[in-house]
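dude i think i finally got it to work??
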Amino acid sequence: MRFSGVPHRTLLSLVAACCALGATASSGSMREWRFNVSLDGKPIGEHRFVLHEFDDKVEVTSEANFRVRFLFIDAYRYEHRAHEMWRGDCLERLDARTDDNGEEIFISGERAGRGFRVTTDGVVAGLELCVQTFAYWNPRILDATRLLNPQTGEYLPVQMRALGRDASGEFQGVQHYRLSGEGGGRPMQIDLWYTDAHEWLALESRTPDGRRLRYSKK
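look at this
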C-alpha cells in the first residue's frame, strides 16, 4: 500500500536512478560523490555515485536508499542499484534493480546491432543506437532530446532550458537549468545547478502532490 504524500515512483526514479556527476575524469581514475536527499527539508536518505574511467569507456555505479517515516514508522522505502557502461556519449550496457516500497523492478539493456535493446521485467523494446540515461555527470545531457529512465524502461522526450545564473540563494552565480517533459503519464520538471566546469551541484523537483524533493552535495 502506498503512503499518501511521498514521492511518486516515476518522479523519484527520474531524479534518483542511474545518474553520476562531475567533469570527465582522467584515464584510469575513479571519482565518488554523495548526495543528501531531503523531502520538504527533512532528510530521507542519500544517493552515492561512483565513476570509473578506463580507456574509452566509463563505468557508473549508483546506489540510492530513501526512507520516509510517519509517527516513528517506516511509511515508505526506496532502494535502487544500477550499473551502467558507456562508450563516449552512448550507453553500452545497463543493469538496474529497484525496490519501490516492496515492488521490485528489473531493467537491463545493451547495444545490439544497430540499436539498443532494453528489457523491463522480461518485456523487450528496441531503441535507437545512441541512448542516454538521466546521467547528469555528462554535460551532453544539456543537449538531449530523449532520455532512458533506468527504473521504468521508458524512453522519454525531454527539453532542457538554460535559466542563466542564479541571482540569489545558496547557488548565487551558478548556472541553473530546467529539464522538463513527461514520465509515467505525468508532467515532470527537474531543476539542476552546475558550475562553469559542468560539475553538478544540486537537484530539485516537486512530487505530484507538491512536496519538494532535493539533492544536496555532501
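Residues 9-217 form one domain.
im so relieved honestly
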